[in-house]
Design a protein that fits this description.
The protein is an alpha+beta fold and 759 residues long. It folds into four domains: 283 residues, Glycosidases (TIM Barrel, Alpha-Beta Barrel), CATH 3.20.20.80; 129 residues, no CATH class; 111 residues; 99 residues, Galactose-binding domain-like (Jelly Rolls, Sandwich). 23% of the residues lie in helices and 26% in strands. It is built from 16 helices and 43 strands. Helix 1 runs parallel beside helix 2 and helix 11 runs parallel beside helix 12. The longest helix has 27 residues.
Length: 759
């Protein structure tokens, strides 16, 4: 049986035991995941590459083999790859170098790769143009894994992931990558003196030097790693730096398309999941070129947020499949939440801590469909030459390729199919390219964007008024099948290839399916059953501030207090209940739970230290509904939970909620449809599961044996872990310190639905 192409990037933070690892992998397997990449990152307390580390890897392998799961290895600690968590750059001769080519002191060789981040090893970047440095890296990582686990290579262990290796980390404006012996290679390749061309500002110096650095990078690192993996029976995969912007991908990697194509399974980075990003189509075009017919991989979702809808994740998988991507590495699967102490400004979590993790089974099935679509080919309407030459020529200074991004987006959203082609590749097909002044060239002539598009456009995707629409992507394959993806257009009706179709938010429409028409509405009064207490954070920012809780009446609550801090409620330290653990697995291990106490009907001041965006110092727990109050100080108002429900209401809660009603099933109906929800939803009739869904249209079949009968209707919805973290936008606006900003949270995860109909 083919495994799911979803590969979770597991962060084994803390010091997981054999039992922890077994339970973790079992939980994944039960939810449709049978491939995992072991991803050492901040928060891992087991010393990297120690015997204790390899012992933990052995536990992963043992459990994966018993569970018929596959493993992938990550080749470093954090990123970028090539340093073995600082072991390589401890040696000064193995540190990346650059050469100054503009301004004063031309020709100065510098080890300017030092950085200030605590995420990366010894604060220097490795010289991946130095074969000896790369050999040393391989000996510390790849060889050590093979020495211990070689009999699992090619069976349980499928591949090795290299992450953002680059020659450009120290080559900002005015600098180029440099390696020892570059001068003699320049003389041999071009018949000119390196320093003379540099100091005279020779027109082609930058391009020529970058060509040498690119070839050296490919030979010393990419080819060497690829060859090692092939000879040891595993796949080399991963991605390069700045792969979404053609100019920066060249600055950081040299000949980007050539070097990425040398990966056995080339990959790309789309961890922000910003479907509106101007560089999105450029990114997918690059990986499609590199993958060609052999498939490719995408690293997805790491910047979150953790309340990203399954519909959006599903849409991204299909967009990737439309560009030949058939392996989906999902970041990040935390074994527990403690990694958020170290990388604390963004959070995505593919683990059982998510109440809606059961939806991964459905996403996994969708991924299998997407993988099959990735095998298909399509005929491009036009080719676009990747601007390698002009990017190499300008690699030492910032360079704006907005015109290229605009072109690719306009082509994509007008239904004009395109593919990248390298500058030296011949083809008889129509080609668009950029000249040295960034003009668009078509049939040898410069053309304005609007005129060029008018010659190509056939109004394939419009609104009802015939206006071209941004945000809808359509792929037509050679076998006559197609898919339509609503990346970010508003929900509504659109005209696509002359047919009117209705698209939900982040919809995936295969072959323009027609959905059954709605019949009469169901309008019962539902009873609500809350399957767990509500949980919401108390935001105590910047150590000097406090949070507050207020209530419309006295009510019993508990507080979860992170184990490394203390809490005061109106100046009093509450007692801890050692036998209470209402929090999800992977979170509860890091919190103490107070005894239940009554909160009066007034404002209660809560003080707590060292609050973290995605690892709160304190949370309030109980049978209540919560409303976030954002002002000078962020607080929480507690009110009574709703106990009855009518379609159209919204309930902000956390975890799992059930809606129950008695209904009479009409004759002739085939199903039930919900609208107006984004949650993982299951529907039961008379205690039997009718179906589950993670994206619109939420349709569930009805057995004809139930026609005419009064039955119990139960709708079960599960949220992500997101509601626990409250108003993270408030955090972003008021926190003094930050790292990277992830994709903004939705802020709310409402349970319920707008309408419910028979179909």
């Amino acid at each position: 049986m083919m495994k799911s192409p979803l590969i979770l990037m597991c962060a084994p933070v803390g010091k997981p035991t054999d039992k922890d690892i077994r339970n973790y992998l079992t939980g994944l397997k039960q939810n449709g995941i049978d491939q995992v990449m072991i991803y050492p990152r901040s928060g891992c307390l087991t010393e990297y590459l120690s015997e204790e580390w390899f012992s933990a890897i052995g536990h992963f392998i043992k459990s994966a083999e018993e569970l018929s799961m596959s493993l992938w290895l990550y080749d470093d600690f954090n990123w970028p790859s090539g340093d073995a968590h600082g072991a390589v750059t401890k040696h000064e001769c193995f540190r990346l170098k650059s050469i100054k080519i503009e301004g004063d002191d031309l020709g100065t060789i510098s080890g300017r790769s030092k950085h200030n981040s605590d995420l990366f090893g010894e604060k220097f970047f490795p010289d991946l143009m130095n074969p000896k440095a790369v050999d040393y890296f391989i000996s510390l990582t790849h060889e050590e894994y093979y020495k211990r686990f070689g009999n699992f290579f090619g069976t349980v262990i499928k591949g090795m992931f290299t992450d953002e290796p680059s020659i450009g980390y120290c080559s900002q404006n005015g600098y180029l990558p440099y390696y020892d012996g570059m001068e003699s290679d320049y003389q041999h390749a071009y018949g000119k003196d390196f320093l003379t061309d540099l100091r005279s500002h020779s027109k082609d110096f930058c391009k020529n030097a970058m060509r040498l650095a690119s070839a050296r990078f490919k030979e010393a690192y990419i080819d060497k790693i690829a060859s090692w993996c092939q000879s040891h029976g595993i796949v080399m995969t991963g991605h390069l730096m700045c792969d979404n912007e053609p100019f920066y991908s060249v600055r950081y990697n040299g000949d980007f398309l050539e070097n990425l194509s040398a990966f056995a399974l080339p990959g790309m980075d789309e961890i922000a999941t910003c479907l509106e990003d101007r560089t999105l189509m450029a990114l997918f075009g690059g990986i499609e070129y590199a993958g060609k017919e052999n498939g490719a991989m995408a690293e997805l979702f790491a910047l979150g947020p953790c309340d990203m809808s399954y519909a959006k994740k599903r849409c991204m998988l299909y967009l990737a499949a439309c560009h030949k991507i058939d392996h989906y590495f999902l970041a990040i699967s935390h074994m527990d939440i403690s990694g958020n102490r170290h990388v604390c400004d963004y959070f995505s979590d593919f683990a059982v801590a998510q109440p809606d993790f059961g939806g991964m089974r459905l996403l996994s099935e969708e991924a299998k469909i997407a993988r099959e679509l990735a095998k298909k080919d399509y005929a491009p309407d036009v080719y676009v030459r990747f601007p390698t030459e002009i990017s190499l020529q300008n690699a030492s200074k910032d360079f704006d390729l907005t015109v290229l991004f605009s072109l690719l987006n306009e082509l994509s959203y007008r239904g004009i199919q395109w593919k990248y082609i390298r500058e030296e590749e011949p083809t008889d097909a129509p080609i668009i390219q950029l000249d040295d002044t960034l003009r668009l060239i078509w049939n040898g002539n410069a053309e304005r964007m609007d005129h060029l598009l008018s010659m190509l456009d056939h109004k394939a995707i419009t609104d009802a008024d015939g206006t071209c629409v941004k945000g809808i992507f359509r792929r037509r394959w050679k076998d006559g099948t197609s898919v339509i993806l609503n990346l970010y257009a508003p929900e509504g009706s659109y005209v696509i290839d002359g047919n009117t179709v209705y698209l939900h938010e982040h919809d995936v429409l295969l072959n323009q399916c027609d959905w059954p028409a709605k019949r009469e509405a169901l309008d019962p009064s539902f009873q609500i059953r809350y399957c767990n207490p509500n949980v919401v954070r108390l935001m105590c920012l910047n150590d000097s501030e406090y949070a507050f809780v207020c209530s419309d009446e006295a009510r019993d609550v508990r507080f979860a207090v992170r184990t490394d801090t203390d809490i005061q409620i109106d100046g009093t330290c509450p007692a801890i209940d050692p036998d209470c653990d209402p929090l999800p697995q992977g979170i509860r291990e890091h919190y103490r739970i107070t005894r239940a106490q009554s909160i009066p009907a007034k404002k209660v001041v809560v003080a707590c230290k060292n609050d973290l965006k995605y690892m709160p110092s304190a949370m309030v727990i109980g049978d209540f509904s919560a409303k976030i109050l954002s002002g000078d100080v962020c607080g929480v108002r507690l009110t009574e939970r709703n106990r009855t429900y009518k379609a159209g209401d919204k309930i902000n809660d956390f975890g799992e909620v059930e809606f129950l009603a008695r209904v009479k099933v009409p004759q002739g109906v085939t199903g039930i449809r919900l609208s107006g929800t984004k949650l993982y939803t299951a529907l039961y009739l008379e205690g039997t599961l009718s179906g589950e869904n993670i994206a619109a249209p939420y349709q569930f079949p009805v057995d004809k044996a139930l026609w005419g009968k009064d039955v119990e209707l139960k709708i079960v919805q599960c949220s992500s872990i997101g509601p626990m973290f409250g108003d993270v936008d408030y955090w972003d606006k008021h926190a003094k310190h930050s790292q990277w900003r992830g994709t903004p949270s939705t802020g709310e995860t409402p349970f319920g639905f707008d309408e419910i109909h028979w179909i």
